[in-house]
Automatic annotation (TrEMBL):
The lineage of its organism: Bacteria, Bacillati, Cyanobacteriota, Cyanophyceae, Nostocales. Keywords: Glycosyltransferase, Pyridine nucleotide biosynthesis, Transferase. This is Probable nicotinate-nucleotide pyrophosphorylase [carboxylating]. Pfam families: QRPTase_C, QRPTase_N. Residues 30-116 form the Quinolinate phosphoribosyl transferase N-terminal domain. PANTHER family: NICOTINATE-NUCLEOTIDE PYROPHOSPHORYLASE [CARBOXYLATING]. It is an enzyme of class 2 (transferase). Its EC number is 2.4.2.19. Belongs to the NadC/ModD family. Residues 118-286 form the Quinolinate phosphoribosyl transferase C-terminal domain. Involved in the catabolism of quinolinic acid (QA). Pathway: Cofactor biosynthesis; NAD(+) biosynthesis; nicotinate D-ribonucleotide from quinolinate: step 1/1. Substrate binds at R106, T139, R140, K141, R163, K173, E203, D224, S250, G251, N252, S271, S272, A273.
Amino acid sequence: METTTAVLPPFIILDNHLEEWLREDIGRGDRTTQCLVNQDVVEGKARWIAKADGVVAGLPIAGRVFQLLNEKVDFTTLVKEGEFCEQGKVIAEIKGSLDALLTGERVALNLAMSLSGIATLTRKYVEKIEDLPSLFVDTRKTTPGLRVLEKYATQVGGAINHRMGLDDAVMVKDNHIAAAGGIGKAITKIRSRIPYPLTIEVETQNLEQVKEALEYQADIIMLDNMKPDMMHQAVEVIRQHNNKVKIEASGNVTLKTIRVIAETGVDYISSSAPITQSKWLDLSMRIN
């Protein structure tokens, strides 16, 4: 399985982040490399190798790290984004200024290992339900400053992005409901103030809340932390009332439970696990 939906954020957005992370690592200068290598004079070659099985993500971003240090660096990817690679596979080759290769190594590897870990775990979730209509969705539980990259990695793994930020869509959660004094009051206040074409999603925890969300014409209804039996009932109630309303399941989503949740007939299943619980995929760079 290879994803075809992942869209790499433009470098006009990413470059500020990458430059900041390079400055953090380099500080007042790469003491070791500057003592050993004349800048832009000595050229070198290196290979990137997968040291564990997993889905590779972030190679174009890693290549950009080196090119910000020296635009003449040639970073050639040997695998596709989203490709599953076995331990020992050479996934990229680099040639160019040895100074740039050595100085950019850690930032580039850190990013690719983190993103590949997210993509690898995401793929496991997606594969559990790939023969069912439900789609797997990420969440806003991301590392501050890394959201755009972490959500890119879930796409590489085969997931769909939920809203990127608070301005993407309206999601009325339990605390919003408490603050407004109920689902109906919350939706009524929000609908008169939001711009077209923002949708309204409401988090529900029982059938009474589901019915109230339907009464006030929520566009998307989230079934939060419901047990499968109640979720089945909720899906049936929603489908009978308005088949155009989208249904999202969230809470207690694991590799063991995701298929049972999908079998209830929900449209989307959201989870933060691929980002919050993933392990970095071990990659290494070897100078030839």
